Amino acid sequence: MSYNRQMPEEEALVPREELRATLAAQRELGPDYEAEVLDRFAAELERRIQSQLTTRRESGLTSEQKTGIVIVSIVTAIPMIAIASGTGLAGVVAVCVALVLVNAVALRR
Fold this sequence. Notes:
Elements: H1 16-29, H2 34-59, H3 63-84, H4 89-108
Helix pairs in contact: 1-2, 3-4
């Protein structure tokens, strides 16, 4: 089975060079140390996955999601303001305040 998808080294969960070094160490040390080499590699992989998950949780929404929220807010603002204009200035202000609050809460994350 061949895995041809090329990923930039800085985005790779496990850099190719590190994987090659682990495999070379396993071959050099032989079967007596195979479990230790693989355990160390697995521990490093788990640490990297945990680090990425923590980073993603801390960052909240992605840039694309934030852009999407802003675009949807602008698109929905037009008909909402048109509908609210029938109730007067108070309705238009209420819609604008609601849209600002939705964007502020969403983009603050």
